[in-house]
Amino acid sequence: MYEPLAERMRPKSLDDYIGQKHLVGEGAVIRRMIESGNISSFILWGPPGVGKTTLARIIAEQTKVPFYTLSAVTSGVKEVREVLDRCRADAGSIFTKGRPVLFIDEIHRFNKSQQDSLLGAVEKGTVTLIGATTENPSFEVIRPLLSRAQVYVLEPLANDDLLQLLDRAIKNDRIFQDREVKVEETEALLRYSGGDARKLLNILDLIYQSLDAHEAFVINDKIVTDRLQQNPLAFDKNGEMHYDIISAFIKSIRGSDPDAAVYWLARLIAGGEDPKFIARRLCILAAEDIGLANPNALLLANAAFDTVSKIGMPEGRIPLAEATVYLATSPKSNSAYEAINDALGYVKETGNLPVPLHLRNAPTKLMSQLGYGKDYKYAHAYEGHFVEQQFLPDGATDARFWHPQENPAENKLHDRMKQLWGERFEK
Fold first, then answer.
1. Residue pLDDT, tens place only, 8-57
2. Residues with Cβ < 8 Å from 286, sequence gap 6 or more?
3. Given this model, what pLDDT does residue 91 score?
4. Positive or negative CA dihedral for 356, 379, 383, 425?
5. Choice among 61-65, 289-293, 314-318 with the minimum mean pLDDT
6. pTM of the entire structure?
């Protein structure tokens, strides 16, 4: 049976592993774990083809501990429990060296009950969990499990990494040994690979399969482009999109270009991107980039997310398109985004400033005697439902975080603040 080039070239040790130096370089956290043999639970988050599964296999090879693998695509709660039972048996055996490791590929595809079934074993230390995901764990992994596993982010491979991989394949793999190899251009190869090692090797495989028996193996932009046009899915069989397409989608909406935004949306949909992932990005963008300039944008984006979750695809493309066009054509403001970032920076710098006494709650008699809540002015008891008083901590009363931007909605809000607070909001 033919073994794909990407599988034949899979590294067996850290010395052969390409990229992710922040995790596996000298002195980096995962290298230290492997060298010490003390593996703690973690989740590898990154785009396809950057070495998540390979890293897990290297850990299995070099630590020599019992190592189990599950795919979230094909495994249910029953399979998880069976593997955990085997892990418990290993953990209690006098012949076992080290704690068993359970690797779960595409862990974001596990539902809540499947993830819940892992909690006890991870919490008790029966098993070390290593998960791999292309999706943001904050959204796809339950909070209790996330709190028990460190998240490590893997980056798309740089062009230098991909060129190193190309050179290694040409020098070491059997398909290049008995024929002339000419690397004339690599721009198209790198562009179509998009930071994905598997894509690059699949493209090489595709070119090889198109050659006659003794024909020279030539890599240039025309050959790469021609071969991929003949078989456009050969380098991306799962339809996973480049992060740069998602970036172009977001930036087109932010830049108020509905045509470009819908084009990139179509690219995402045609490539098989998870529609809920797209909808989540629209919700984030509505809050970050439109914000107070049109608060309805967040409502519509959230409605699109809810609708897509209910009806699925292909009909889900319609609410996604509606939200995309609406957000792209809306006025833009990131004042709320900047306000919370500035406030977080201020909190980090100033620490835990005390809450003013008049703003504190006084559920007990002692607290009342200590002045908690004293002199607080109830806004609704005053004309216009407003009365001026101090809400920021002592020492921070001059701090300003929200700076309204120039658009009709925020101008109106700004005018109201100036009317209520006077000089504080004149700047």
1. 999 988 989 999 999 999 999 999 998 888 888 999 998 888 999 999 98
2. 297, 298, 300, 301, 302, 327
3. 66
4. positive
5. 61-65
6. 0.58
Q: Note the Cα 189 to chain centre separation in Å.
A: 25
200, 187 contact by CB (below 8 A): no
- Whether pLDDT at 231 is above 60: no
Strands 150-153 and 128-133: unpaired
Write out the DSSP string of 319-368.
HHHHHHHHHHHS----HHHHHHHHHHHHHHHH--PPPPGGGS---SHHHH
State which H helix or E strand residue 152 sits in: strand 150-153
Alpha-carbon torsion (92, 93, 98, 103), positive or negative = negative
DSSP summary character for residue 156: P
Cα–Cα distance, 173 to 175 (Å, whole number):
6
Report the DSSP beta bridge partners of residue 43: 131, 151
> H helices within 136-287, ranges in order?
137-140, 143-146, 159-172, 187-193, 197-209, 221-230, 243-254, 258-270, 275-285
pLDDT band of 243, cuts 50, 70, 90: low
117/373 Cα distance (integer angstroms):
46
Residue 179's pLDDT is: 84
Amino acid identity at 2: Y
Query: What angle (nearest 5°) sits at the alpha carbon of residue 53, between those of residues 51 and 57?
Result: 110
Q: How many CB atoms within 10 Å of residue 251?
A: 15
Decide: residue 330, CB within 10 A, 0-12 exposed, 13-18 middle, 19+ buried. Answer: buried
Please tell me the distance from the alpha carbon of residue 381 to that of residue 369, in angstroms, as a whole number: 24
Alpha-helical runs (H) found in 147-237: 159-172, 187-193, 197-209, 221-230
